[in-house]
Specification:
A hairpin with a 2-residue loop joins strand 5 and strand 6. The protein has 7 helices and 16 strands. The chain is elongated and about 75 Å long. It is of the alpha+beta class. Residues 1-26 form the signal peptide. Keywords: Signal.
Length: 315
Amino acid sequence: MKTVNKIIVKMMQIALVLMLIFSCTKDETTEVYQEPDALLESEYGLTSITDKEIPQEVLNQLEATKENLEKYMGGILQIIDYNIIGKVPNTKSLDMTFDALSKSSTTVAYGNIMDPKTVVIGDLDKLLPSKTQEGSDLLKEYASDQIKVGDKAMELTWNYKGETFKTTTFYSDAGITWDNLMIGLIMMNPESETELKNNDNEKAGVRWNSYKRSWYGNWLWGSRRGTIYYEITVYHTNGTVSNTDITDYGHMNIGSAKSESKVLKETGSYGRGQYALGLCTPIASLKFNEEKFEVSVSGVGSNIISNGTKSLYPN
C-alpha cells in the first residue's frame, strides 16, 4: 500500500512539473506575439512580408527628404531610422489602416520646412482640439484616395527637438503614398515668381502684354506638389487697352486648392483684375467668399493664401 502511495505522489509531482513547463512555454509564446512590429501589423491590418527590399524611388525620396530637412531645419527635425513592417493585403485591412491613421492621438504636422518657425508637430487632438473629428475625417478621406491594397508599410523613426517618435509610412514601387507627417509638411518659397510676356515683335494689328504671378509648394523630397497662379493680359492699340483677360489656376496633391479671378477694368489706359488663390495640406480646408472675393483657410495645415488686385498697363 505504501508503494502505491509513493507512486501516486511521484506521478502528482511529475504532473505539477509538466504544468509549470507548459505554463512557462505558453507565457513565452504570448510574449513573442506582443513584440512591437506585431502590434503595429495588428493595429494597421497589415500582414508580414519577407521581402525587405525597398524600391529605389522610395529610397531616393527618403534620402532627399533627409537632405532637405538638414538644409532647411538644421537638425531640428530628422529621420533617424526606418523599418519595414508589412503590407496591406485586402480591403478589410484598408479600413483598419484608415482608422489607425486618423485616430485622435495620431501624430500630425503642418508648416513650411523652409521657414522652420512655422513647423508644428503633435497629436491631432492637441493641435486641433475644437475640430478633432473634422481633422480625423479629412485624414481618412485623403488617405482612402492614396493608400491601395498591396501597398507596403514601414515605420519611420523621427527626432524632433531632441524627442523621438514614429510614424507609419505607406509606399508602392512608384514611391511614397502616405505618411501623416510628410503629407502635413511642405517645402515652399513664400516669395512668388513672376513672368512677363508680350508680342512686341508684332508689326501690325492688336498688341498684347501679360503678367503672371505664381506660388509653388513641393514635397519634402523636392518634387512639385501644388501650384496656384493668376495671369492678366491686356490687348492694346496705340497705347489704348481694348480688352483685358485674367485667368487663374490651382492644384494641390493630397490637399486642396482654390482659384478665382475676375476683370475689374476692361478698357482704357490700363486693365485691372482681381484674384483669390489658396492651397493647403490636409487637416485644413479652404473656403471662397464670393461677396468679399477672397479665399480663407480653416483648421491647421501648411498653406499659401493670396488675395488681391493687379493693374497692368500697355507696353
